[in-house]
Specification:
heterodimer; A: alpha+beta; Penicillin-binding protein 2a (Domain 2); Beta-lactamase; 2 domains; seven-stranded mixed sheet; 21 helices; disordered C terminus; B: mainly alpha; 3 strands
Chain lengths: 597, 367
């Protein structure tokens, strides 16, 4: 012992300090491990556990007879697993060389990414790239190969606008639809049926839960959740009729050197759309694995807008096909009797407007005027009705607003009326504009689908059914999730006699009228109406609407050929070929594919 | 004689130290994936184990000498220390940006580890005659200069951790030496006032370490990575731990330096709070015995030696364990008896041997 130890107290103080040091460390350990333990345990799991999602295959599209239209094929995607440590520069440069993706693009994707889902670098790579990566795992640490179903549009560009296309969800759409369960990197429907029925057909993604080490090398699989494939769509489309319609349009466009057209084929008794064509078109397969700049530019720079579905988005003056509306209105409103004859001297007596070539057809009754599409007769009908009555009947036919078909971006069209003119031109309505409206020129605008609907209402004795493209949605276990039955939207408030007279007039169009030459010897009785819509920007647009068989119509067709000139020369041949296909006349062996409701 | 020596051994100190060394071998084994197939994972454990045995043999041999003879060698030890530290700067090779190693044959030694213990001995010899006579700055200056030279040499390596250990030893010893408390407070006040100036002398990576200590998330994949991953490892161990060889942070390599500076994180992760608490209590026994030995020492030199050693060990434990739990900045200070590294292990076992020697000879009458 030290004698006279005046500093023993200092040593004891040191002892207290030592105890305090250990006490502080113990308290800190207790805080981290006992109080915050759960939190750190979850962080440790976040370090080591990665979910490698397996994308659910989207539902298949079948046609009305069960034929495959749109399906999936397996594709390999090269992805990076987000790691706790930064991705090695060597791996990035190796990937860049292997995949021909610039290093900056890979870095951009890594930077833009958050969370622990894989960062997709390139989709749909070839099997030899897959084997290079699999064989040299050490050189590609953190790189994983995901097998993803890639959308396969069997018909290529046929019905492209109807089916639509898919691609990776955009940031803006993700922001908007987060609540619906959409995640970054998801493949979503962008257009057409793919967009409208996305929720039904996308399925539920599954995934593999893997344990990875610090370099992202998977150590073991902890769990697997199988993806649930999306529900299938059974469409109202008839594949053979669709193909025939596509061919009819293409052949005719090539023949008359036109570039854009649209056609709609429907069953007027149900609203089922049997075929829908829009030209020019695009191949939706290009979008399935990220469209190349070259392909995108080709589509984007085409002056005829291949991405527009002209059948529902294109708005054209209806031309003479509008005489169906004018004629129905005049008869129903009692402005003319079926037998009253009106004299066509080549020009109307109030305003000197006449037929296209100044032709004079003499005395005509209603049916004859319809068959020959006489302008002077229908100017007079417009004169007697006035614009307000014409507007009322147009709206009764459902014009001026969307039909409600299950496709995106449908246009309203336009019904000529006083309020519109006042609003847009700040001017009063003039009689000459009523004359124009009565024969479908001037302000009137319709989409090909609306044109088909008007013709369909006459065919179905005034009944207007909602157009639709899907008959039923069926889950993978065969359960029908949703069935679409004909939905009656409205009925024309006119007497059956009026409709019958209009029908007769339209029938005579193909017997001795404007489309007679094209339908000579056609074995089935057809009602039709041609139209030629003035186009201030170029050649006139050609129209043809038709239905058949005349006694019990099951098919209605509307065709427009942009800048095709006379409807009888441009649109009617397409309409005829479509009707031939619809009634199985193009391939005598096969039974009528379409038509039975 | 042997029997008496045996009876006078400090068994609490011996058992606690032995307990920590055994725990160290197990945890180093786990941290170096001894259970993984292939490769020679046993290398670290074997090497540490062999050196532990050699060190213990050396310690037993040194029991034959009285620690008091060290007092006469104070100046020579001091000079030797300076030469050794200079040698590191001239012929040493660097690792992780610091020049700290000297190769002697197949063994790489880290002189700064040994220099701590030598510092304790030479400073104890120097202070022995100054007890109760450190009252003014003037009294303090020679002592400060004495410690300052090796301090600056170590700082230059650069080895901030070891130089801070020198400071801890210095303060512990002058405190027990009876420095006037007003003077001590004055030094601390001046030290705090100088902090902004000192900041400029720190290397960039050292500044970064301080910054990530305040907020590890300023650089989560760089300097802050160690702290974040270490805290996750320890916290996720929860009460009972994930089990030996089962720590995901350690086994999947999320935790770097897990067998050296961050070995406490492996203890926390695999053995949980229970294991961490047992280890900390073993340290408490060692440190507490160190304090008692200082109190009961037969002479001032022995007390100062024991105080220096205890201060050194306590500072190591505080800074290392504190660092792994995010309450101390990252400095490269190993955890005594636990971290892999033969220089550190040898130094610490010899330090305990000195403590035992002081304890053994606390009653003058016997010898």
């Amino acid at each position: 012992m030290i004698e006279n130890d005046e500093y023993e107290g200092r040593v004891k103080a040191l002892g207290i300090m030592v105890v305090m040091v250990i006490a502080i460390l113990l308290a800190r350990a207790g805080y981290l491990q006992v109080i915050d333990g759960e939190y750190y345990a979850s962080l440790a799991d976040g370090n080591r556990i990665r979910i490698i999602p397996s994308m659910a295959p989207r539902g298949t599209f079948f046609d009305r007879n069960g034929e495959l239209l749109v399906t999936n094929r397996p594709g390999f995607t090269v992805s990076l697993l987000p790691l706790t440590a930064p991705v090695s520069e060597d791996v990035v440069s190796r990937l860049s060389t292997l995949l021909h993706v610039p290093v900056e693009d890979i870095h951009k994707k890594i930077e833009a990414h958050s969370g622990f889902d894989p960062i997709r670098i390139k989709q749909d790579v070839t099997p030899d790239i897959v084997s290079i990566i699999e064989e040299q795992k050490k050189l590609y640490s953190g790189v994983v190969i995901e097998v993803q179903p890639i959308r396969n549009y069997i018909l290529k560009q046929e019905a492209a606008h109807t089916f639509g296309y898919v691609s990776e969800i955009s940031d803006e759409e993700l922001e908007r639809r987060k609540d619906e369960g959409y995640k970054s990197g998801d493949i979503v429907g962008k257009f057409g049926l793919e967009k409208v029925y996305d929720k039904d057909i996308r399925g539920v993604n599954g995934g593999e839960q893997v344990e990875v080490d610090v370099t992202g090398k998977p150590v073991q699989v902890l769990g697997i959740k199988e993806p649930v494939p999306g529900a299938d769509l059974y469409l109202t489309i008839d594949k053979n009729l669709q193909t025939a319609a596509e061919k009819a349009v293409d052949d005719q466009l090539a023949l008359i050197n036109a570039h854009a057209a649209a056609a709609v084929v429907m069953n007027p008794q149900t609203g089922e759309v049997l075929a829908m064509v829009s030209r020019p078109a695009f191949d939706p397969n290009l979008f399935a694995h990220g469209i190349s700049t070259k392909d995108w530019n080709a589509i984007n720079n085409n002056p005829y807008h291949p991405m527009d579905n002209k059948a529902i988005t294109g708005e054209y003056p209806p031309g003479s096909t509008f005489k169906i509306v004018t004629g129905t209105a005049a008869l129903a409103d009692g402005r003319v009797s079926p037998d009253e004859k009106i004299f066509d001297s080549g020009y109307h007596w109030i305003i000197p407007k006449g037929n296209a070539d100044g032709e004079a057809l003499g005395w005509l009754n209603f049916v004859e005027a319809m068959a020959h599409s006489d302008n002077v007769y229908f100017y007079e009908m417009g004169n007697r009705l006035g614009i307000d009555a014409l507007e009322r009947y147009s709206r009764m036919f459902g014009l001026g607003k969307t039909t409600g078909i299950d496709l995106p971006y449908e246009s309203d069209g336009l019904v000529a009326n006083r309020a519109y003119k006042r609003k847009v031109y700040e001017d009063d309505w003039y009689l000459s504009e009523t004359f124009d409206a009565a024969i479908g020129q001037g302000f009137n605008l319709v989409t090909p689908l609306q044109a088909a609907m008007v013709m369909g209402e006459i065919a179905a004795n005034g009944k207007r059914y909602k157009p639709h493209l899907v008959n039923r949605i069926v889950s993978q276990d065969g359960k029908v999730i949703k069935e679409f039955t004909p939905e009656l939207l409205s009925e024309l408030e006119v007497s059956p006699d009026v409709i019958h007279l209009v029908q007769t007039g339209l029938h005579e169009v193909t017997t001795y009228g404007t489309a007679a030459r094209s339908f000579q010897g056609f074995p089935i009785e057809i009602a039709g109406k041609t139209g030629t819509a003035e186009n201030p920007h170029g050649r006139d647009h050609g129209w043809f609407v038709a239905y058949g068989p005349f006694s019990y119509p099951t098919v209605v067709v509307a065709v427009v050929v942009e800048q095709g000139g006379y409807g009888a020369a441009s649109a009617v041949p397409i309409g005829r070929k479509i009707l031939e296909a619809a009634f199985g006349l193009n391939q005598p062996a096969s039974p009528a594919g379409a038509g039975k409701p | 004689m042997t029997k008496r020596i045996f009876r006078r051994m400090d068994f609490a100190l011996i058992i606690a130290t032995a307990g920590i060394v055994v725990m160290s071998l197990v945890i180093i084994g786990s941290a170096t994936h001894i259970n993984a197939p292939g490769r020679e994972h046993y290398w670290f454990v074997q090497r540490q184990g062999i050196f532990a045995i050699i060190d213990v043999a050396l310690a037993i041999f040194l029991m034959n000498f009285d620690y008091k003879i060290l007092q006469g060698y104070g100046t020579r030890l001091y000079v030797f220390n300076l030469i050794m530290l200079l040698a590191v700067m001239l012929v040493g090779h660097s690792a992780l940006g610091a020049q700290r190693w000297i190769s002697i044959g197949p063994i790489n030694i880290q002189p700064s580890e040994f220099s701590k213990l030598i510092m304790v001995a030479s400073l104890a010899a120097m202070l022995e005659g100054r007890v109760g006579r450190i009252n003014t700055v003037h009294d303090l200056l020679p002592i400060a200069a004495y410690v300052g030279v090796p301090f600056l040499l170590v700082l230059k390596q650069p080895d901030l951790g070891t130089s801070l250990v020198f400071l801890a030893i210095f303060f512990g010893m002058i405190f027990v030496c009876g420095i006037r408390l007003r003077l001590l407070c004055g030094i601390f006040a001046a030290g705090i006032a100088c902090l902004p100036v000192l900041w400029h002398f720190l290397k960039d990576y050292q500044k970064m370490r301080i910054m990530v200590f305040i907020d590890p998330n300023v650089d989560p994949l760089g300097s802050g990575y160690h702290i974040i991953q270490s805290k996750i490892a320890i916290g996720s161990g929860m009460l009972f731990g994930k089990g030996l060889f089962e720590g995901t942070q350690s086994q999947l390599n999320f935790l770097p330096e897990n067998h050296t500076d961050f070995i406490f994180a492996v203890v926390g992760e695999e053995l949980g709070f229970i294991g961490a608490a047992v280890l900390l209590l073993l340290y408490l026994i060692v440190l507490w015995r160190g304090v008692q030995i200082a109190k009961d020492a037969s002479d001032i030199f022995g007390r100062l030696l024991a105080t220096g050693i205890t201060s050194m060990l306590a500072f190591h434990v505080l800074v290392n364990v504190g660092m792994t739990m995010g309450i101390m900045p990252v400095t490269g200070i190993p955890l005594p008896f636990m971290s892999y590294g033969v220089s550190s292990l040898t130094t610490n076992i010899l330090a305990v041997a000195v403590l035992l020697n002081i304890h053994l000879r606390k009653q003058k009458l016997l010898f």
